[in-house]
């Protein structure tokens, strides 16, 4: 077989596989969105299930998902940044460092259900947090922390070595070089990775079944006392998130319009995850252009 013929065949196979994958993803997303968006309305997004006669509404679940996301990222971002900076700039190249990197890689590939069981044993039972948003946030921190560490480490390692050496040559301390030279250059990539990690948190369900719970108290959105059990700002209350709600309403089938509720909630969840992905790319490009002064 001639080289040009083999090259055309290889290109055709690769293009065909790419088109097949895109077609499958587009058809899946199109089916879910077309089926679900017809059931989405402002009332559906803001009302509680018990406030609608047919059993619909995802208002509390949507709020719980956003609140859980904020709690998780408030814990994950400082720990991930600190660990990533240490692994990239301070840790020596030895067996211990290699072992830590191996552990990070293993944790990043753990099934979420295993992380949920760990959270149930440690946070819910051992620390007696019971089913709560905080227990769910800590479990998702364990789930997301390896990704955040790797993103930060790889972003800092991607900074040109000359820039780091120039800062040290000017007499800057190591931390000043990292904070003033390396982090601004790596910041766009870190932001992109952080938003993608946030999207993973928003769509997670398995780990939350064992930590945040599958039910929520009736929330009073006029009560902003974080110590009250009915306050939406109480991090120690059980909370059913949007992803868990989709699983629960499909498995129980108690609501008369369960398929419509699940379809609408799935469409909302997909749109939010897509917004996270597109938003991370857009924000990363904007920040990169700002730091590099490119158009």
From TrEMBL:
MF annotations from Gene Ontology: phosphate transmembrane transporter activity
Transmembrane domains' residue ranges: 9-34, 66-87, 99-127, 133-151, 181-202, 261-280
Keywords recorded for this protein, A-Z: Cell membrane, Membrane, Transmembrane, Transmembrane helix, Transport
Entry-linked Pfam families: BPD_transp_1 (PF00528)
BP GO annotations: phosphate ion transmembrane transport
UniProt xrefs under PROSITE patterns: ABC_TM1
Gene Ontology CC entries for this record: plasma membrane
Annotated localization: Cell membrane
Membrane topology designation: Multi-pass membrane protein
Residues annotated as domain ABC transmembrane type-1: 62-280
Family: Belongs to the binding-protein-dependent transport system permease family. CysTW subfamily.
NCBIfam families with a match to the protein in the record: 3a0107s02c (TIGR00974)
The name this protein goes by in its record: Phosphate transport system permease protein PstA
């Amino acid at each position: 077989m001639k080289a040009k013929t083999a090259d055309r065949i290889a290109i055709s196979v690769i293009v065909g596989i790419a088109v097949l994958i895109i077609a499958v993803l587009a058809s899946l997303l199109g089916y879910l969105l077309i089926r679900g968006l017809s059931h989405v309305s402002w009332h559906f997004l803001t009302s509680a299930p018990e406030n609608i006669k047919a059993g619909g509404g995802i208002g509390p679940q949507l709020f719980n998902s956003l609140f859980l996301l904020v709690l998780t990222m408030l814990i994950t971002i400082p720990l991930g940044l600190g660990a990533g900076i240490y692994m990239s700039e301070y840790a020596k190249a030895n067996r211990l460092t290699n072992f830590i990197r191996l552990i990070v890689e293993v944790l990043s590939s753990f099934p979420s259900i295993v992380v949920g069981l760990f959270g149930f044993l440690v946070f819910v039972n051992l620390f007696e947090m019971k089913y709560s948003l905080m227990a769910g946030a800590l479990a998702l921190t364990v789930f997301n922390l390896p990704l955040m560490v790797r993103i930060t480490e790889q972003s800092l390692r991607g900074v040109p070595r000359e820039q780091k050496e120039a800062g040290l040559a000017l007499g800057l301390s190591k931390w000043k070089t990292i904070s003033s030279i390396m982090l601004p250059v790596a910041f766009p990539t870190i932001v992109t990775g952080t938003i993608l990690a946030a999207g993973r948190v928003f769509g997670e369900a398995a780990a939350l079944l064992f930590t945040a719970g599958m039910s929520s108290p009736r929330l009073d959105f006029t009560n902003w006392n974080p110590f009250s059990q009915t306050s939406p700002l109480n991090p120690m209350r059980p909370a059913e998130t949007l992803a868990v709600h989709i699983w629960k309403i499909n498995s129980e089938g108690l609501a008369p319009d369960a398929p419509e509720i699940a379809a609408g909630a799935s469409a909302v969840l997909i749109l939010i995850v897509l917004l996270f992905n597109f938003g991370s790319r857009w924000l990363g490009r904007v920040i990169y252009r700002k730091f590099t002064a490119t158009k």
